[in-house]
Every structure is written in C-alpha cells, then in structure tokens.
Amino acid sequence: MAFFGFSKIDPSHVVKLLRRSRAATLIVFVAATVVSYQAQAEHRPITSALVYLMCVMLIGASRGLRSGLAAGFAASCIYSIFIRNPIFEFGTVTLDYYAPLFGFNFAALISGTLAGRLTDRAESAEAARQQLDLLVQFSSALQKAVHLEDVAIVLRSTIPQADIRSRLVPYVERARLGSVQHNLQKVIGLAISVPGGGAPDRRFEPSDIDLPAFVDLLAMAVERCVLLEQKAETEAVQRSEQLKTTILSSLSHDLRTPIAAISASAASLKRFGPAFSAEVRAEMLQTIEEQCTRLDRFIAKLLSFGRLQGGDVAGQLEPVDVVELLGKAVISARAAGPNHPIFKDLPDCPVIVMANPAMLEQVFFNILENAVVYTQPGSAIRIHVEAAGEKVVIRIRDNGKGVGNDNLGNIFEPFFRSKSSRNTNGQGLGLFIARGFVEAFDGSIEASSPHAGGPGLEISITLPLVRVEVEDVVNG
Amino acid sequence: MARQVLIIDDEPAIAQTLKPVLAAHQYDVTTASNAAEALRKARQCAYDVALLDLGLPDADGKEIISNLHAYSCRSVIVISARHQEAEKIAALDGGADDYLNKPFSIDELLARIRAALRRSNGAAGGQIFKSRELVIDYVQRSVQFMGEDVKFSPKEFALIEAMARHAGQVVTRRQLLLAGWNDPTADGQNLRTYITLLRQKLEKDPSEPKLIVTETGVGYRLMATIDG
C-alpha cells in the first residue's frame, strides 16, 4: 500500500533530485533499507528484494555507474547479512546466498552504464549546442563589420584575449589560408593589442570553441571587409577623377569665354578703332573691363576652391563683425548688379563671430552675386540679420525662379547649376565655397523656398556668436 | 617739377601700361624689374612714390621696404593679390604706406598716389583737415560734417584724427588701437564699436559706408574727397 504514493511521482524528478544531492541519495538508500527490512520482517521476501533492487537501479541511473555499484555492493551486503538472514546467523553457503550480490550489482551496472551514456550524450549535445550558439552569434555580429577594426572588436568581445593568444594565434599561424592569412593575423593582432574594456559577456571554456569553423567565419568576414574597402577606394578614385574632369572642363570654359570677349574687343579696337563711333568704342572698352572683373572673381573662387579641396580652410580665426562685412559685400554686389534693389534689415551694433574676415565677406558676396546673376533685373533681394542667444542667423532671399524643392539640397554641390540657370554666367562654385567656409567657422548654411515650392530662394547662414565685453562708449 | 614715381614690378606689361597713363598725369616714371635694380635706382635718385609688387623674382618685396624708405623713396605703395591679407599687414607693419589690390583700376592707383603725395608733402600735418564733406580742427578738436558741427567724444576724435591724417590711405587696426587706446594690443571689439559710432554720425547709410571704408582684414580708409 505504501507504494501507491510513488506512482504519482514522476521518476525523472526523483532522478534529477538524486543527481543533484548526495544527502537525498543517502536518505533514499536508508529508507529503502528500512522498507526492505520491514517487508522481510512481515515475511514478504519478494517485496523486500524488489524494493532494494529498485533503490539500487535508481541510484545507478541517477548518480552514474560508480555510485550505482557502491549502492549495489552495500545493498547486497546489508541484504545478505541483516535482512534475509537473522543477524550473525551464518547458514550454509549456497548459490542462493550469492544471488543478491550478483542481482543488485548487475542491476547497478546496467542502470549505471545506461545512465552514464545518456548523461554523456546530453552533455555532448549541450556542448555542441553552445558551440553552435557561439558560432551563430559570432557570425551575426560579424555581419555588421565593415572594417577590419570592426572584425577585431567582434572577435575580442566573443573570446577572451588569453584564449585568442593561446589558441587562435597558433592555429592561424599553422593554417594555410592563402591571401586572407595576412589580414586575419592583422585582425587577431588588433584584437589582442587593444587594451581592456572588451571582456566577453559570456565565459567560454576553450574547448567550447570550434576552431576551424570559427576561423572560417573570421576569414570570410575579413575577406568581405577587404573587398568592401577596395570597392570604396575605387569609387573614391572614380569620383575624384570625375571631379577633376568637371573642374578642367569648367575651367577652360569659364576662362575662355571672358578671354574670347576681351580678345575680340581689343583686336577690333586695334584694327578698326578709328572707324567705330565713340559709343561703340566705349562699349567695347566696357566689355573688356567687365570681363576682366569676371575673370578676377573666377580666379578668386578657384583659389577658395583649391583651399577647400586642400583641407586648409580657415587658418587663424579672429573676431569679425558680420554687419560690417555684409555691408562690404552689399557694396560689391550693387556694383555687380546695379539693377537689383537690395533691402537690408540689420542690427545697428556690431555682431561678432569668429571667422576669417576676407572669407566671410566672400561667403556673403557669393550668395548675393548668385541672387544678382540668377534673377531678373529689377527683382529685389532682401537681407535679414537676427542675433539671438548664442547665434546669429543671416538670411538672404531673392525673388527669382527658385531652384525647385528637388534641387534645394544640391545647390551647395560643386559645379551644380539648376536647369534654368545653365545659360547664365555662373560656374556653380559660389555656394559650394560659401558652405565650405561657413562650416569652417563652425556654422551651418541652408537653402529653402520662402514660398513652399514657389519662386524665390532663401539662403540662411547660422554662426555662433562671440560674447564680448564692450567698454562704456559714453565716457570713452 | 614733375613728381618722381618708381615702378618696381617684374611684369613688363604693367610698367608698359602704367608709364603713359602716369606720364599723362604729370608724373615722371622710372621702372625696375627686380629688387636689386630698384635699390640701385633708389640710391641714385629721390622718388616721391614707389609702387612695389610684393612678388619679385630676387627678393621678398617686404624686405626692401625699409631700404627704399632709407634711400630716398618718401612713400611706398605695395601692390598685392587680394586674398593675401597677412602679406599686406606684414608690409604695412614693415613700413609700407599703403597697398593696392591686384588687379586695380587706374583711378584707384591715381587716388592712392595722390594720397601718398599729400601725406609726404606734409599737408596732413597742418592744424586743419578739410575735405568736401568733413572739416576737422585738430587744435580746437572740433568736427564739421556737411557744414554742421558734430559732437565727438575724445576717443572718437582720436580715431577720426588718425584716419584724417592718412586721408585716402589705409590705417591698420593696430594704428587705430594705438591712436585711441595707446595700446596696439587693446581689445579690437571696442575699436569696432567706435567705428560703428563714427559711421552713425558721418554716413548716410552706416551699413554701407562710403566715407569710413572697411579694408577687410587690414583696417579702415577715410575716403574723403579732397580738392586740389
């Protein structure tokens, strides 16, 4: 009757409990001994033997072969000496006497061996799963790597540096991996040399690492990074070649056009000067002067462009007055486009920013010049300067056709010219230079359409203000 | 007697063009195509104005400014490319009286030569400065603009005086700081504020000054119209 309770207990739970706890094993063994003794006392020898047999099998299955055999041996001794025979009553030694010894130990042997095998299988399956897990994690982390440095970081965060040193390095040194080997060693070197910080989240036993598969993954990632870098390099070279071609064609066009006009005017004056009316002569001389100015401005832009391309942009910055430089640029712009009314809304005190004065003046002039060149004579240009808080915003708005929303982002690109402006005299350098210079002064520049997609273009420049102490001018 | 002008430039086209123009304005023109020749000529004969291109084949133009002054040139006007502010400042600090951006117009050149002559003649050293728009009495410390008295604070007066004594010529920020604060390293921000005040008193549109003109990165120039 007492065993009905056991039928409701899942034997695997008992096995797990015993696997974990020696005390529980001992308790089970003692309990089995007591039950077996009691059964024998009640003259139920079969029950007594079966209880002991079950106990031995349970211990063998849960705690492995060695514990099973120990339990079997102990059980056979106890059973033979204390349970089956009255204490210290040595009967004749028959084959029957050895039956418990064989039976219990044989049961222990079988259950222990089977259980051991199962445990080994489970453990090796678990190890394989962990290895696979590690590889999958490693592989997916490597997917994101674009540079060799990224690969090194992934490697360092997956495997402890000591293991990289002791296992990966010798393996890769021995392996024949062809062209990847060098870069692979470089990556491993990087992963080792980068100090601290990157200890792996999880500790893995060195045996957890499937080295060949691991190195294969690493090699693939390295190869991919190298290819990506090569591709980027090729693209950069192509872009720079394209830029060079554009610069040269723009140069020859923009230099030749004014030179052609100058040379034609000068040659005509030389040959037919006296035959021309005074008006025609004045017009030709005017052309020569204007085209010279145009050439001069273009050369100034080329110098600035070269400065930007060379990376040496601002040099020493100094405090400059935005209002003053804007005023100077306006005077030049009025000379370049006398037919454009320019309206100003400026503060009446200096607005100080850190910049190179000549370059900032050129920024303002380039934007105003564009507004003059790309709009119809008579159309107004508005300038608004607002200094508030930490920055000053300079807005220059024209009333021309605008460039269309699609082109707003492109107008700061070198040699960009919108479709409607292809026939005018610009080179597409002015706004590119403006952006380069403004950024060198820690500022930003933006283009927008003041009438959502409609006509007009507004360029706004934001520059950080310099806080200054001004002496008391009343008493000065 | 005609004024003597020495043109120092290794580009013959410049001398060729300038010679007849300056001759037409009653100047006697001598040319030198390098530093050695310029110094030799300056030693032999006195010149009122030397036009010095900074990019000479045998020397840095800046280095011969003081020699030119020492030998006989009363004024040295430096000719330089527009974007080389640092060069210009170095030349002005090194003794040059003025500068001219390349390419320049003939009117500009003539105005600079006239301003240089006026100053070296001692006309600027008198008691009163008089132009079409401005009358300044250096002794009375009074200023009249377009015939009307204008009140100037002592510092404002010091600044306008420094510019008027070099009327038509560039005055560097350093020179103005010396004039106003007796200290060339004084805070440039104060100078800017005072220039703004002067413009508010003397300009029709202070944001587009016609009289007190900014020489970007270098200093200021008083563009007063002086007759005769």
Fill in the keyword field for this structure:
heterodimer, A: 476 residues, alpha+beta, 5-stranded mixed sheet, two-stranded antiparallel ribbon, 13 helices, 9% strand, rod-shaped, B: 228 residues, alpha/beta, 4-stranded antiparallel sheet, 8 helices, 39% helix, 25% strand
Following the backbone from N to C, one meets helices and strands of chain A in this order, namely HHHHHHHHHHEHEEHEEHEE
Largest chain-chain contact?
A-B, 33 and 26 residues
User: Between the first and last Cα atoms of chain B, what is the distance in angstroms?
Assistant: 16 Å
Percent of residues in helices of chain A: 55-70%
Beta-strand content estimate of chain A = 5-15%
Count the E strands of chain A: 7
Low-pLDDT parts of chain B are none
The parts of chain A where pLDDT drops under 50 for at least 5 residues are 1-5
How big is the Rg of chain A?
A: 46 Å
Oligomer: heterodimer
Rg of chain B: 18 Å
